[in-house]
Amino acid sequence: MAATLAEARAVMVEGESGLLAISPAEERPRFEPSLRRLIWPNGSIATLYSADAPEQLRGAQHHFAWCDELAKWRNADAAWANLQLGLRLGPDPRVMVTTTPRPTPLIRKLLADPAAVITRGTTRDNAANLPDSFLDAMTKTYGGTRLGRQELEGELLDAVEGALWTPDLIENCRTDTAPDFTRVVVAVDPPVSSGPNADTCGIIAAGLGTDGIAYVLADRSLQGARPEGWARAVEATAAEFNADRVIAEANNGGDLVGLVLRSVNATLPVRLVRAARGKTARAEPVAALYEQGRVRHIGTFPNLEDELCSLLPGGAYVGPSRSPDRADALVWAITELMLTHTASPRVRSL
Predict the structure, then answer these.
(1) Distance between CA 312 and CA 284 in Å, rounded?
(2) Are 248 and 273 in contact (CB under 8 A)?
(3) Strand duo 222-223 + 270-273: pairing
């Protein structure tokens, strides 16, 4: 059983590590896609199921079950319950779960079950079957992040209690596509210094879709860059996404921030903003937009998402970086797109 029948077939049966690929020729099962089943030479039969259709399990009974990526099933509780009711053949019916350990209630329940046998593995444990370039890229991009610890190290990570964002909230806001944009902005939270120990310069691109939803497009944040370096990164990001505005926080640099940005491009459409409230207070209305489904992430931004999931009400930040500069830039971007009301010409009928 997988999240969908398509995944059960593509990954568990026909995939590079699927049942057909790993079976010796003399023991390879015959796959009958129209009947959703495999038949082995010894007469054993396996049936494919989808967690999206848990009612299919009613009435069926089995000796053994294999559940893949249980942590991503949309109807996990219902599908799991129906599966358990049918595991009643033979003297010792069992189930094997292979999954990324996301902290869902069902995964927690299984890990706490004294009858469960738990085996953990990291991506590096499978290095012999993976390209070095893939391993290096994954380590460079996700190493040390919450997403990397979950996906690469196989850790079960708890959400920070009381955080404004949770991993599940962000996962529910993720998408691969977006409509046309009516506006695109690049938001900047500039550091007060440069060098290896300096804060990160948060640089986030976001757009307002024609559907009224804000989309996070890119995280181009830099750490340790001199002012000209991060200013050129902002200019490049604005050009890449054809941004109509650059929103730059000026609390720690004043008008100098605008001068630095315009020094690399005099036509850069910069608007300086000054924070009257703390980072977390500014973040709370934006977090509410996520809860309403009005913000989407196009792709994955592990460092940014780590910071978002570490912001607590009242001003506390318990994240991996010294300051939530990426998160602050995102807040400025979404605030500009969704929460700032600017005057615009209107036609009124009499």
Answers:
(1) 9
(2) yes
(3) unpaired
Which domain-ending residue is among 119, 154, 178?
A: 119
- Asked whether residue 137 is assigned to any structural domain, the reply reads no
Could you tell me if 244 and 308 lie in one domain? yes
Buried-exposed string 272-288: b where 16+ CB fall within 10 A, e elsewhere: bbebeeebbebbeebbe
Query: What is the helix (H) or strand (E) element at residue 280, kind and residue range?
Result: helix 279-291
Same domain, 88 and 224: no
Q: What is the pLDDT of residues 121-162, one digit of tens each?
A: 888 888 898 899 998 888 887 776 767 777 788 877 766 778
Please provide residue 206's backbone torsions phi and psi, each rounded to the nearest 5 degrees. -145, 150
3-class secondary-structure state, position 175: strand
Q: Which domain holds residue 185?
A: 167-339
Does 103 share its domain with 180? no
The pTM of this model reads 0.62
Residue 61 and residue 275: Cα distance in Å, rounded? 62
Which residue matches tokens 């009613």? Answer: 58
One domain for residues 87 and 177: no
